[in-house]
Amino acid sequence: MSQESLTQCPDHQRIVITGIGLTAPNGNNLSEFRRALLAGESGVEPYEIRYFGRTVAGVCHFDNLKYASRRELRRGTRAGSIAVYCAHEAVADSRIDWDAFPKDRVGVYLGITEHGNVETENEIYQIKQYDYDCAYWSHHHNPRTVANNPAGEVTLSMKITGPHYTLGAACAAGNAGLIQGVQQLRLGEVDFALAGGVSESIHTFGIFAAFAAEGALARNDDPAKASRPFDAARNGIVVSEGGAVYTLERLSDAKARGAKIYGEIVGYGMNSDATDFILPNSVRQAECMRKALKNAGLSPAEIDIVNTHATATVSGDINEIEAVRDVFGETKTTYINNTKSFIGHAMGAAGVLELAGNLPSFEDGIVHPTINVDDLDPKCAFPTLVLNKPLEGKDIRVILNNSFGMVGINAVLIVAKYEA
Q1: 108 to each of 131, 177, 186, 248, how far by Cα in Å?
Q2: Is 299 exposed, middle or buried (0-12, 13-18, 19+ CB in 10 A)?
Q3: DSSP assignment, residue 238?
Q4: Contact present, 246 and 22 (Cβ < 8 Å)
Q5: Could you tell me the sign of the dihedral formed by the alpha carbons of 59, 91, 350, 418, in that order?
Q6: CA–CA dist 178, 158 (Å, integer)
């Protein structure tokens, strides 16, 4: 959408990002995360989990006691802990007068891939020592495993009395959380939204075992080289945890309080493949990108960065590049990058972490690369792939962020640089 088109839209219908809180395997705030992306620093490390054994994973190292007590951590979940940390960080970053803001006008919308597997596995492991006597099953199990738990833990921590829920949208969930926040603000249901996605996936052995059974779990002697989208030697997904929560506001409200604006969400699209449980569909992915472009009133030529979903599976990377070719042709002005090469696949948090890592491009004019591409797969070749080192000195105004998930769910988000 051109700046002229944007100014024709009333400010109360324009939704902007005013705060970002995150934890990623290679950074616990946006500044740390961005520095690692530009320096080529991976957050993937050796990891071991019961039953499955040794592997690699993206592990977060945030201070989980910064906004929670030990008692709250014992009662809650890892996903909830991540969500609480990111939400508090986002609100602090937004510099809103939180104490004075009416908490019944705040909504919490968090995307998740799955929730409850970690707690269920843990409880079964614990009662094993009691010969599986269910009398020893934790009375905390139900509130830990309800699907709304991560968002609910945020409301408990921050005394938010407005609506909260999670959106189960597989690996498209982070983008879905942001889309929901945008829609609720435009409908007038809330005046301030905490939106994004979280994942605790590395704490369940089942996800590692399942990916391994599919032949889709990454292996590499060097953990930092394990996640390698587009590389001919890629061999699967690096499972990661993480989270990113954004504060979203109407432009009219953000301007009234003089808020810093990271960017404006100008378009989005969601659709379904309806073809397979796991295998992606490049035709539907292309349709989703076009849907987002139409929603934003933009042409493909107006997109400066496409952050790919590419997970480093053979078919997934190829299908997405086919979709990008279909939409963008042989563009020389739209740069293509990938963030999973640094942190692995953070599942429900993937899309929002990847978007966060690219947003500083509006200010510094740098496109972060895809790392670990030593031998580009010819089927993944594209003229404007940014590989192994940053691309500097670019005028970045619009970012398109792809997220595609299992059972064929796709979500695309478009964010533009805000210019008063």
Answers
A1: 40, 9, 15, 10
A2: exposed
A3: P
A4: no
A5: negative
A6: 19
How many angstroms separate the first and last alpha carbons of the chain? 15
Note whether 222 and 336 are same-domain residues: no
If one counts the domains in the chain, the total is 2
Burial class (CB in 10 A: 0-12, 13-18, 19+), 396: buried
CA count, 13 A, side-chain hemisphere, 98: 16
Task: Measure the CA angle with vertex 1, ends 267 and 178; round to 5°.
Answer: 20
CA separation for the pair 156, 352 (Å, rounded): 23
Query: In whole angstroms, what is the distance from residue 350 CA to residue 316 CA?
Result: 15
Catalytic residue among 60, 86, 164, 171: 171
Of 88, 164, 203, 345, the catalytic one is: 345
Looking at the structure, tell me whether residues 252 and 300 fall in a common domain: no
Strands 398-405, 305-307: pairing kind: parallel
Residue of 324, 338, 322 whose CA lies nearest to 373: 338
Residue 56 lies in a domain: yes
134 is catalytic: no
Amino acid code (one letter) for 14: R
**pTM above 0.90?**
yes
Q: Show pLDDT as tens, one digit a residue, over the chain (420 residues).
A: 444 555 578 999 999 999 999 999 999 999 999 999 999 999 999 999 999 999 999 999 999 999 999 999 999 999 999 999 999 999 999 999 999 999 999 999 999 999 999 999 999 999 999 999 999 999 999 999 999 999 999 999 999 999 999 999 999 999 999 999 999 999 999 999 999 999 999 999 999 999 999 999 999 999 999 999 999 999 999 999 999 999 999 999 999 999 999 999 999 999 999 999 999 999 999 999 999 999 999 999 999 999 999 999 999 999 999 999 999 998 899 999 999 999 999 999 999 999 999 999 999 999 999 999 999 999 999 999 999 999 999 999 999 999 999 999 999 999 999 998
Decide: helix, strand or coil at residue 155.
Answer: helix
SS3 at position 111: strand
Tell me which residue range forms the domain holding 273.
267-416
Integer Cα distance of 377 and 382 in angstroms: 10
Q: Is 262 part of any domain?
A: no
Q: Is 171 a catalytic residue?
A: yes
Q: Which two tokens stand for residue 341?
A: 């090469």
Q: Is 290 part of a structural domain of the chain?
A: yes
- Same domain? 147 vs 112: yes
